[in-house]
Amino acid sequence: MSDALAVAAVTETLRAVLQVAVHRAAPDAVVTVRHPEDMDMRTGPAGEGSRHAPALNVFLYRTTVDAAWRNTDPLGAHPGETRHPALPLVLHYLFTAYAPPDTDSTLPERLLGAAMSALHDRPVLGADALKAAADFSDLHLQPESVKVTPAELPADEMWRLWTALGHGYRLSVPYEARVVLLDSSVPGRAPLPVLRRGAAGSGPEAAPTAAEPWPVLQTVLPAIASPGADVVIGGSGLRAGAASVRLTHPLLGGPVVLPARADGAAAVRVTLDQKLGAGHWSVVVVLTAPDGSERTTAPGSLQVAPRIAGALPLTVERGGKGAVVLSVDCAPAVHPGQRVELLVADLPVPAEPFARTTRKLRFRLTAGLPGRYPLRLRVDGVDSPLAEAGADGFDADTAVVIT
């Protein structure tokens, strides 16, 4: 997600990307981000001295809300949690070219052509470009890419737009940048997890009525596991060769290949690597036949849980105006781009930004009240355990004591 500075970050990144493009068309051209009435309609923006430089002006004239994203659930929220959704914005820009009157009359077309060609080749503002051009915002961390595409603006709407701006029409092209997700500053609530469900803590079970000709992955138990734990993968046709498990992560990459061993007639067991990063992993069982051929199952899902390392419970003192700073050691290490939160009772607190892989995280509560609160570390939507499997209560030491 991104902060309220993301709108300015998109404009600054467009300026940087288009500056390279128009420089090829006209070495002395500049990219400006002014209101059209601040531009000299006759000669363009003034350059050094008394000389006027050709210019491409990038003007944000309108913002709208993306209807599809407005109806999606808040990112990172689990069932039963309440979070204020992000504000999904579409930014509408007008690109206008200006040239001094004594230059080639096709210079505006050359500038617009260079800009349109650049955005046609690179319509997505990548994380690297956003961070390099606008390091004042964390827009580069939002999970959805920002794509800049030409917009359809009928002639009468273009005429009304220029009339509202108080100027005669100039050669212009409309573009839109979609989507910019502005994080809400309203804190959410994440209730403590359910310890037991059903008479014996068991849910529904299903099994196929006939053998499948191809290996099928049906269950991954437990669905949430810590690095170093054993995971049992059940299904059918999993004994048709030497089994291994292939894990991939959308951010951490992979594949991570782990050896598997039989666990009964219809399951294999695998021990997770201690260095496996927290988050959502895709699981595939690979069966290798004696002739070297491979058969794979469809992917399943495994959530690798983080763990709060170090001595617990944590004890911290409130600072000025009740502010509390928590330093938490985590295992395994978290990586840049992962979304990390500390759940203090039912209050999600985002981690302070980190630029490299780390095991030490800082969290700031603006107004912490004295008391003892359960702690959970959430990495990419996966929580650290607050109770041992089958326990009837939460671990009392997995907590923070605010004095």
List the helices and strands and how they pair.
Blueprint: H1 6-25, E1 30-32, E2 55-65, H2 67-70, E3 87-98, H3 107-121, E4 124-125, H4 127-133, E5 146-150, H5 155-165, E6 172-182, E7 216-221, E8 224-225, E9 230-236, E10 242-249, E11 253-262, E12 267-271, E13 279-288, E14 294-296, E15 300-304, E16 307-309, E17 314-316, E18 324-334, E19 340-344, E20 347-350, E21 358-365, E22 371-379, E23 382-383, E24 399-402
Parallel strand pairs: 1-2, 8-15, 17-24
Antiparallel strand pairs: 2-3, 3-6, 4-5, 5-6, 7-9, 9-12, 10-11, 10-13, 11-12, 13-14, 13-15, 16-18, 18-21, 19-20, 19-22, 22-23, 22-24
Tag the structure with descriptive keywords.
403 residues, mainly beta, Immunoglobulin-like, 3 domains, 5 helices, 14% helix
Describe this structure in words.
With 403 residues, this protein is mainly beta. The chain folds into three domains: 6-182; 216-304, Immunoglobulin-like, CATH 2.60.40.10; 307-402, Immunoglobulin-like (Sandwich). 14% of the residues lie in helices and 37% in strands. The protein is built from five helices and 24 strands. The strands form four sheets. Strands 7, 8, 9, 10, 11, 12, 13, 14 and 15 form a nine-stranded mixed beta sheet that branches. A six-stranded mixed beta sheet has the order 1-2-3-6-5-4. Strands 17, 19, 20, 22, 23 and 24 form a six-stranded mixed beta sheet that branches. Strand 19 (340-344) and strand 20 (347-350) form a beta hairpin. The two termini are 32 Å apart.
